[in-house]
Amino acid sequence: MHFVTRFVLVLTTMLPAGAGLAAIDVTKTLTGEFFGEELEIMEDGSGSLSFEDMDNPGIRKQFRASEKSIPNFGFTSTAIWARFTLSNNLETNKKVIIEFRYASIDRVDLYYLNEYGQTVSDKVGDKVPYNTRKVSNRYPSFLVDVPPGQTQYYIRVRSTGTTMIPLVFWDESEFNKHAVSDSHLLGHLYGVVMAIALYNLFLYVTLNSKVYLFYVLHLVFFLFHNWAAQGSSVVYFMNDFPNHWISNQGFLVFAEISTIFAVYFAIEFLNTRDRYPKITKFLTFIRWLAFINIINVQFFSFELGARIANFNVAASCFSMLYMGVFSLRSGYRPAYFYTLAWALTLVASIILAMKYQGILPVNWITSWAHSFGVAAGAILMSLALGDRFNYYRNKKEKEVRDLSERLAASLANVEEQVREKTRDIRSIMENIQQGIFMIGRDHKILPDYSQFLSKIFNRSSIKDTDGLELLFENSNLNLDEQDKARTVIGNCIGEDSINFDANAHNLVSELRFQSEDSKEDKILEVDWSPIEDDDSVERLLVTVRDVTEVKALEHVAEEQKKRLNAIDRIMHIREDKFNGFVRNFLDMELHCREILSATSAGENDINKLFRYMHTIKGAARILGLKEISSEAHHIESYFDRVRKGKDSYDRKIIDEMLDQLRHTLDFYQHINYEVLGRNDDNVITSASQEEILSVIESMSALSLTPDLEAGLSKIRSLITSPHGSSFHESLSDVLDSLDDISIKLGKERPEVVIDDYGFTTSQKGEQFLRNIFVHLFRNSLDHGIEPNEVRREKGKIERGKIIVKLEEADDKHCRITYFDDGQGINVTRLRQKLVNDHLLEDPNSVSHGEVIEYIFHPGVTTAKQVTDISGRGVGMDAIKGFLLEVGGNIKIDYNDSITYSNQDGDEFVTFKIIIDLPLGLVAKGSGDDTKQLPDSA
């Protein structure tokens, strides 16, 4: 197998270079050029490929031509393979040095086949002992003896940090000359930095100033870091170690330690604790982050540590440069050299970071920029330290002179300033139309308080009065509220100001006050403001404002606004519609009062009360009477809790809620009939109608004259006969409400088709139909008609359809057939609901029809949650109850088979609702009248 591999690889080396990739001619003089564009690259994500795998055609096809002179892959743990061809046009072998111009690479392996087909390999890197290298150089390098002709070489690169392939080719003689000049340049730079470090160490010993020590430590650890970055550490330290610590973990550890001391130096040099406290806190965070990262690099993740180190260097440099610029703008002269020094260091550090991140290429500039930048910065920083010494010496001398002059001037003016400020404060306190005073720990009012305070509390003398007693004594605050305020104040005065900020919301902001000689309450607003000293609350400044007149005006304005809103709503309701609502309301209120007049209320009574309130709420909501619908919803929720056992039946509470509801209706009636002057002649309740009809029936049993019998018959006909509104006109308000319901449910407004067959409605029948159809339409929209996307999936149009048909059932009833084109009723969920409510023991023991009949049971619903549209299980129960009360009936005509199953396994059955309505509520007209109402009622 190895023989075949060698044969194929030897054969490939004899072939010309791939299309577009020229062989590197080593015949000419090689002086350190980058030949990245002559490389072919392949990424080995698994890292498992070996040199023997290179003969695999599938592997060889994965190589792609490099488009950069220095291929850079950034932070990656992927193994990178590169291949290139060296062409020797001489008749003898030529020695070539392949230099890998990146000292921080972990390991580089070189593979090729010699002229005998034997595999030749070599390895270098900072995780390979330096003393095994064939070329003594701070950069990993290979020495190859290139035979005549073309030879193909493979390089495998893998590293925990930045991975790049900066290959440079040298003639042996040219490389030796370059190595000498490179060593001299590096030595001079290190010498400059070490000399500056020794100079500043001398200043530290002489002046005993920490700022010099911090700078020396920063330079020393930077030298260690730079030795690792430049590859010098592996040459002079631990060169027989296979995993060179200084070049790997030490590279980042020294960078972080250097950053820590640079931060200490900047804080001391610019005195940032007082001048830039926020930036100082940020730099302190950088110090701790660097310390934590040192531990991380040593024991956990080198890649994460490299990223954190880059952030720390960049953030600290930017911060220190920012402080230098602002110090310079504020006149701090030593910041001039300091700012220049850090600007150079920042630029150098950015270049270094961008090189390691793979953003910038590896070349002479990016390789030496950091060393040159920091060396120049060190020189400038030494000048800054010297200038700082002279600056502070001159500043101290000037401060002493200026202080003496200012002290003399201040002593001459301080008494006059105090007298002037005192006059101003007293003038304010005498004339301001607010009560202002201060209290201390003992709550006593301090002497300087406003004169208006006496007028507010009707007291002539307030000095030394307990400020809290003054506020609370004759107020509407209970003892618990007073004690809470006293506790908060006791915990704030003399304590840190944060205590006040955390508890200020517990202090009273408004109260009612009544003095002994005044019959009217005053409404007072109170503001509490801390007076602080060194972040501690010493006293509280209390401001009291008499807003009685303002609140009265606000109340009048609020009442006026309420009246205007009511007028606006009523003006949008037709007169007959409002009168019909009032009739319906009064009828249902009367029924509620009759039930409540009983000594006790059973479950059926509670269901009726709940049903009446639910119907009032729906009718009010259709007309836009929000206050009535809201209060009815509140009462409805109470009855719902009672019937579920979550609240107790309390006649007093119910009477109070009904009285409030009736008060709201009376308010609307007052606006309608008295303010707007609209007619109320037609407001005859059903109870009144029944009473009149009862009298007529009683008189009919007597022996009457033909004229009197004719008159009674005419009265009966006027009361019971329809007033002529068509069926669909009676439902116009309910149909108008479909727009809002559809929007809330996110569905298209359904098309409503009404075939009324010429039927008309009486006044009582019109409101009765509204009470029924408000529930039917809501149930269709919420439960029956599917969401738009579901209808699309079923092949239906997004807009649903509701069909209402009227016909004569017999000589006493009109039959209404109601259905929609939705999914039907969820019998699976309904069965489970019945089991949960203990209405069924075995959900499979009854048929679909028997299950569906339970929708008329109070509280039964298939809704997952209660909404303001449906979900309480009252709609169908209410419809059946209303129909039975007037001698009507309702039944379900359902489909025997399952018509639809959803993805959750729920089964649905379609059905029609059949309603038999007494002809007293509707009457047969002439002809056939079909109305299609897609967009309006």
From TrEMBL:
Pfam families linked to this entry: 7TMR-DISM_7TM, 7TMR-DISMED2, HATPase_c, Hpt
Q: Carries keyword Kinase? A: yes
Alphabetic keyword roster = Coiled coil, Kinase, Membrane, Phosphoprotein, Signal, Transferase, Transmembrane, Transmembrane helix
Q: Where is the HPt domain?
A: 574-671
Note the InterPro entries from the entry: 7TMR_DISM_rcpt_extracell_dom1, 7TMR_DISM_rcpt_extracell_dom2, Bact_Chemotaxis_CheA, HATPase_C_sf, HATPase_dom, HPT_dom_sf, Sig_transdc_His_kin_Hpt_dom
Q: Which domain of life is it from?
A: Bacteria
- Residues spanning the membrane: 185-205, 212-229, 249-270, 282-302, 308-328, 335-356, 368-386
Phosphohistidine occurs at 614
**SUPFAM superfamilies in the cross-refs:** ATPase domain of HSP90 chaperone/DNA topoisomerase II/histidine kinase, Histidine-containing phosphotransfer domain, HPT domain
Return the protein name: Histidine kinase-, DNA gyrase B-, and HSP90-like ATPase
Q: Which organism is it from?
A: Pseudobacteriovorax antillogorgiicola
